[in-house]
Amino acid sequence: MNTASPAPHQPRLPLARLAFRPFFLLAALFSVLAMVVWFAFWHGDILLRPHGGLMWWHQHEMLFGFGAAVVVGFLLTAVQNWTGRKSVSGAPLLGLVALWLAARLTLAYPMGLPTWLLATIDLAFLPLAALVMARLVLAVKLWRNLMFVPVMLLLATANLAMHLGVAQGKVEWIREGAYLAVLLIAVLMVLLGGRVIPFFTSRKLGRPQPAPIPRLEKLTLGSVVAVVVLQFVVLFGLAVPAVLQAVVMLVAAGASFVRLARWEGYRTLHEPLLWGLHLSYAFVSVGLAMWAMALLGAFRVELAVHALAIGGIGSMMLAMMARVSLGHTGRTIRTLPGGGVGLGLMFAAALLRSPVLAAFPQITHWIYNLSILFWCIAYLIFLFHYTLPLMRARVDGQEG
Question: Which UniProt keywords apply (predicted)?
């Protein structure tokens, strides 16, 4: 029996050693619970009477409950690799987790608490996470990675808009704030995907990584940033021509797709963790292109939002969480049984919830049911394989 004590700088509790551990685990679990509540709602059963009502709660919590937790878990883990400095761990990390949990509980069960207090608890999470990341990046002057800090702060601004929309009865603030959040997380997917997808692919295939084309990189990143800027302007009530928004989104979609095509995704069909990343990145382009078409009157924007949110964001998060959880717990990076099925179900949910629903609106109820069930099964597969590894020490004895 090994009775050796952990190193003094290593938290005794493995779950508190790096941000990916608690946040990936809790985000996956929370997304399943939130989807169960949403499923019950569509069947006429009210399991919760949350702050803002169930429609607001569903939108908000999938973005700032599930989505923000995954983003923070990934960035506060990656920043340790980027800077070479110890990221948040131990009691401070558990405090950040407790703040996230407090927001989830109080929004689900308001208990008569004043609106300003509920909003304050929820709004504090992203700025605190941004502060942690900024301190590490600034300490080593790694300016390239400082860009993630304003993205997190802008996400907090979108969160504020959704809370103010509830407090002031402004439906447009809720809607535009949610749209801004989806687009900001999509920007993160483009930024991070551009770094890790070609790298992971080249390592797995044993092939040289395609050299980036500077003009294509600038066009891709510049156009997705422009999409966010225009949405930010809309959030503040200023008029932006729908045609202008649509053109910028189409440019972003096209540039992102050309960028993806250069990463040789067709060579990854044998490895779900890789084709999952490639296909989810493709759905970012699909979602932006559908959004542009919706702005021009082809169908409801909500359909495009779900293509981006499920097929792009939710699927890429699932694939990234699976890969990071293996790598940072010292395990062999491979697709575990059912992993490909889970990713396939996520993409099926995206297709059902967007293009299929646009073509066959008369089967809306069935599509909602299936897409919710597919999401739940996909993330339950993740929880089945990764709950214990995330709660245990690395198998190779290293930190993390």
Answer: Membrane, Transmembrane, Transmembrane helix
HEC sequence for 140-185: CCCHHHCCHHHHHHHHHHHHHHHHHHHHHCCHHHHHHHHHHHHHHH
- In one letter, which amino acid is 262? R
Predicted TM-score (pTM) of this structure: 0.93
Residue 301 is given by DSSP the state: H
Contact call for residues 28 and 379 (beta carbons, < 8 A): yes
Q: Which two tokens stand for residue 314?
A: 């939710």
Name residue, tokens 């990234």: 320
Q: pLDDT at position 143, please?
A: 86
CB–CB of 66/30 below 8 Å?
yes
Please tell me whether residue 369 adopts helix, strand or coil conformation.
Answer: helix
Alpha helices in 8-52 (DSSP H): 20-42
Residue 51: DSSP 8-state: T
Structure confidence by residue, pLDDT tens digits, 28-57: 999 999 999 999 998 888 889 999 999 999
- Token pair, residue 273, equals 């963790």
Secondary-structure percent of the chain, ordered helix, strand, coil, rounded to 5 = 75, 0, 25
- Give the per-residue pLDDT at 289: 96
Tell me the two tokens of residue 191. 């930024």
The residues, ordered by sequence, that sit 6+ positions from 340 with a Cβ below 8 Å of its Cβ are: 272, 276
